[in-house]
Amino acid sequence: MSEHFGATSTTDDVLAGRDLSGKRALVTGVSAGLGVETARALAAHGVLVVGAVRNLAKAERATAQVRAEAANGGRLELVEVDLASLASVRACAHRLLEGGEPLDLIIANAGVMATPFGCTADGFETQFGTNHLGHFVLVNRLAALLRTGGRLVSLSSSAHRTADVDLEDPDFRHTEYEPFVAYGRSKTANVLFAVEFDRRHGARGVRATAVHPGGIHTELVRHVEVATLVAWLTKMNAQLAAAGKPPFQLKSVAQGAATPIWAGVVASADEVGGHYCENCHVTKNLLVGDVDEVSEGVRAYALDPVRAAALWDKSEELVGEHF
Fold first, then answer.
1. Rounded CA gap, 314 and 308, in Å?
2. Is the pLDDT higher at 288 or at 205?
3. Which pTM value belongs to this model?
4. Cβ(291)–Cβ(161) below 8 Å
5. Domains defined along the chain, listed by start
6. What count of Cα atoms within 13 Å lies in the side-chain half-sphere of residue 68?
7. Would you give the DSSP letter of residue 230?
8. How far is the C-alpha of 310 from the C-alpha of 304, rounded, in Å?
9. Whose CB among 160, 198, 261, 322 lies 3.0–4.6 Å from 274's, allowing a Cys bridge?
10. Strand order of the sheet with strand 276-278?
11. Do residues 161 and 289 make contact, with C-beta atoms less than 8 angstroms apart?
12. Which residues contact 54 (CB under 8 A, 6 or more apart)?
């Protein structure tokens, strides 16, 4: 790529001068934070954005700016989906398939983080069920709508470093529940899903990638106590100081949404397909052993093609559907 983008690049930076008129994108979670900014930036450059949301009324209020800034034929449509209910996911997919309109991009953005123990409507642990299985069914049901040249961007997190998926006990039925372990498992699943989706669809010109948007203060942290956030920042800043680096800075929402958009419409398909991206580039650093809180990198288990295929098979078994 001739352009150089990084951690401080914004959505407007990565899309500067680009006309995306005629393209159609599905973005989940377009009612707050990264989802709203992603929709705004895409619609402002001509994309017809289908925003899939759990709460339509909330999304209508949150997306006024998206509609105000839409240009070059870009616009926003909202559809209802609760990723914690496979009945809702299947109904949403059915509605979009009936419409028959092709897609150029799916950004699986919605998610929950560090929730108290609970289960989805189908009995799955909340974070694994919502962050992974809900998107697994939605995206796979809509895969036929992705045009040649289309792309899936799966939002993961550096939190994938905390835990690999547990294919024997995905719902914590036999192990003690830890909110951040469960979150880490679900974020690893988001990467593995992209790896296997890319393998299955690459031959027809549809690629998939996973991204870490960075540290951003959004509604995602609503289940995390302030004391925990302070402890994180204290630890990270101590590590940075020891390395002679400046204190950690949270990204703005526009900076956080830049990597998903870069991976979805700016980077070349071969560059990002089957990979993990952060700070608007593909991460090459495979992390081994203990690592600090701030370095870039991805755990090798998250990119393991054998693990990715096994998760796919397990996910099909859990949802009772084969793709």
1. 10
2. 205
3. 0.93
4. yes
5. 11-221+252-316 (3.40.50.720)
6. 8
7. H
8. 10
9. 198
10. 75-80, 48-53, 24-28, 103-108, 146-155, 207-212, 276-278, 281-282
11. no
12. 31, 80, 81, 82, 83, 110
What is the Cα–Cα distance from 286 to 303, expressed in whole angstroms?
A: 9
Q: Average the pLDDT over 12-18 and give the result.
A: 97
81, 28 in Cβ contact below 8 A?
Answer: yes
User: What is the average pLDDT score of the chain?
Assistant: 93
Residue with tokens 């001068």: 17
Look at the chain and count its residues. Answer: 323
Q: How far is CA 282 from the centre of its chain?
A: 15
Average pLDDT score over residue span 126-134: 98
**Two tokens, residue 123:** 């009995």
Question: What is the amino acid identity at position 51?
Answer: G
Q: What is the number of H-type helices and E-type strands within the chain?
A: 13, 10
Q: How far is CA 11 from the centre of its chain?
A: 16
CA distance 267 to 124: 35
pLDDT over 60 (residue 260): yes
For the residues 113-139, what does the mean pLDDT come to? Answer: 97
**Which candidate in 177, 183, 276, 301 is catalytic?**
183
Q: Which stretches does DSSP call E strand in the chain?
A: 24-28, 48-53, 75-80, 103-108, 146-155, 207-212, 276-278, 281-282, 286-287, 298-299
What is the spatial distance between Cα 62 and Cα 278, in angstroms, rounded to a whole number?
Answer: 26
177 is catalytic: no
